[in-house]
Amino acid sequence: MRKRITILGSTGSIGTQALQVLEKLGDKFEVAALSAGNNVDLLSEQIKKFNPQKVCVQSEKSAEVIQGRFKNLQVCFGDNGLQELCSDTSNDIILVAVSGKIGLKPTLTAIKNHIDIALANKETLVMAGDIVMKEAEKNGVKILPVDSEHSAIHQCLTNKNGLKRLIITASGGPFLNKSSEEMQKATVEQALAHPRWDMGKKITIDSATLMNKGLEVIEAHHLFNVDYDDIKTVVHPQSVVHSAVEYKDGSVIAQLGLPSMHIPIQYAICYPERIEGIKTNSFDFAEIAKLTFEEPDFEKFPLLKLAIECGRKGGSYTVCLNAADEEAVLAFLDGKISLGQIAEIVEEMIKNHKSVSNPDIDKIFEIDNIVRTETKKLIKEKYSK
Ligand code: MG
User: Fold this and answer.
1) Interval between CA 162 and ligand 1 midpoint (Å)
2) Which helix (H) or strand (E) holds 279?
């Protein structure tokens, strides 16, 4: 039977790759709806190719443009539009590939409507992991991770009772072999030049500071219900071992593959089936020849340590972490601060944060807003070049 899928964020990095996967999977899937920001030209191409029944765009203006081009298409926009897409119970699965906090509420709506989620949005679990996982369990909804590390763990974690710990790999980003000083004053271009993965800008900067790995540890804690003490990170520059699970009997099961997001995207949307999709070359151990591993340098990458600490502390610390980091990354991309100052700014925001325990969704958004405003103020008053 054909599965009906909706993609939130269809014109982004994960969204476009997901559509490449769907193209190869032919009639196994039917695209129910697509959502995009304001890239109406790319969205128009996608509409022609995948023929969704509904689309959602960010602004009313973009909605008018799309409606003008496709008279019979149902077009909606904004937060309400996303909610509408996620309330459509004819969906079998929704791929949440938008970036930022905009992904959180629609994901919860889909969960409440018993629709399975392929999750590529970090904020959903970093900001509200407790709430989201509880709702998923209550509604019998699967949260299928798209991120390569969590996909790997999902594939390796076949016996939860025998689990000893999770081992999350990190490529180390573009500054792995550079000195702290070089990293601190890196240009935007250098920070965006990730050696292994081609991703959106925010996540690429987070990968350069290893904040991304810290956020992934928080996500793994929620997704797999594993204590922070039992999650280890290891630097693995080749990005071939995507993560591993160590069992109590001493066995370690790792998932390997060439660094391509097509594989974890397809695994999530086709789960539990494994089928041929986008052709990948056969995995050649001899050609890869050498895989290396090393401990992460927590001093050079203080955000990795800080993120894990925030996860451990719980409350609203991860909400603050996420909001402060995003504002600081934007300021770096805007040329207002240096790369090294991202960590300083986030550390200061965390130090001054008054955590709220068990915040509900409204409280989470309220805290998110306050932290963003205060982070911008801090950047303007203390750091702006
Ligand atoms: Mg990842």
Assistant:
1) 25
2) none
Q: Which two tokens stand for residue 21?
A: 């996967």
In 3D space, the residue among 245, 94, 216 whose CA is nearest the CA of residue 108 turns out to be 94
* Cα–Cα distance measured from residue 296 to residue 314, given in angstroms and rounded to the nearest whole number: 23
Domain boundaries, the chain: 3-145, 148-298, 314-385
CA 278 to chain CA centroid, nearest Å: 22
What pairing do the DSSP bridges indicate for beta strands 252-256 and 241-247? Answer: antiparallel
* 138 CA to centre of ligand 1 in angstroms: 27
Shortest CA distance to 149 belongs to which of 249, 228, 267? Answer: 267
Domain 314-385 has CATH 3.40.1110.10: no
C-beta of residue 96 within 8 angstroms of C-beta of residue 8: yes
- Compute the distance from residue 228 Cα to the ligand 1 centre, in Å: 18
pTM greater than the 0.90 cutoff: yes
- Gap between the Cα atoms of 329 and 336, Å rounded: 10
Q: What is the pLDDT of residue 194?
A: 81
Query: What is the whole-number distance in angstroms between the Cα of residue 128 and the centre of ligand 1?
Result: 19
DSSP state of 249: T
DSSP designation for 162: G
Q: What is the pLDDT of residue 199?
A: 77
Expressed in angstroms and rounded, the spacing between residue 148 Cα and the centre of ligand 1 is 5
Is 168 in a helix, a strand, or coil? strand
Q: Which CATH class for the 3-145 domain?
A: alpha beta
| pLDDT on residue 385 | 62
Low-confidence ranges of the chain (pLDDT < 50): none
Distance 230 CA to ligand 1 centre (A): 19
Task: Quote the ligand 1 centre to 366 CA distance (angstroms).
Answer: 28
What is the Å distance from ligand 1's center to 215 Cα? 9
